[in-house]
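Hi support team,

I'm filing this because I wasn't sure whether my run with 58G finished correctly. The job status page said complete, but I'd like someone to confirm that the output block is well-formed before I use it downstream. Pasting the exact inputs I used:
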Amino acid sequence: MRFDVITIFQEMFSALEHSIPGRAATNNIIDINYWNPRDFTKDKHRCVDDRPYGGGPGMVMMAQPMHDCIHKIKEKNSTAKVIHLSPQGQLLDQDGVKYLAAQENLILLCGRYEGIDERVVEQDIDEEWSIGDYVLSGGELAAMVMIDAITRLLPGALGDAESAEQDSFTTGLLDHQHYTRPEAFNGQKVPKMLLSGAHNAIARWRLREALGRTYLRRPKLLKKRGLSKDEQKLLDEFIKEERELL
Ligand code: 58G
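And here is everything the job wrote out:
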């Protein structure tokens, strides 16, 4: 999969070298190319921002350098989807990540300052996405989050042990708890079930914990997903035990 990232802060993306996208790039699973809108300016100071019409604080990213940059990228790959990372975008969830991972080529536009000129959004942007309901000082961190979440779904990017199939959200549930050595830590023991070696019983215990945690922490996720008869039974068990602890 090819990413074309439009940013005035390419250096920030060196953080990706330390995670899955870094390894995936080494293995040619993804290819990230960077474009600086400053290289598409026409004035001697290479200005990419200007004051907002109507007044107010901050600066706005100018339409022309962004527009020319996007069109330069599209010359080579006219089918690429142009994505703007913005708090106004559609909220990214695991279903959204799956949808984006099915694309061959994404152009990720990272804004700075107060945002980009709306005419670029209207003329050149195919989709706007948000990684959550908060404001960042630039689209770069949002683009990195998106690249990371997409890359780990691509064939060959994860080891077998870390199969994306088992992820919470892919199952529609929050993850169950995890433990490693030692068996006792600060007086707390690992749940006995996990030491039993009974694989089926362990799988059911984990499913029950995942259902229980999702019920307690993110009930709307459970509503969206629905439960099988058997899962409902496991959840009832969890709730009953929870009550008995009170
Ligand atoms: C308001 C504020 C509108 C993505 C800033 C546009 C980008 C959050 C997200 C902006 C972002 C997110 C300028 C800086 C976009 C521009 C960028 N903040 N939640 N900030 O995905």
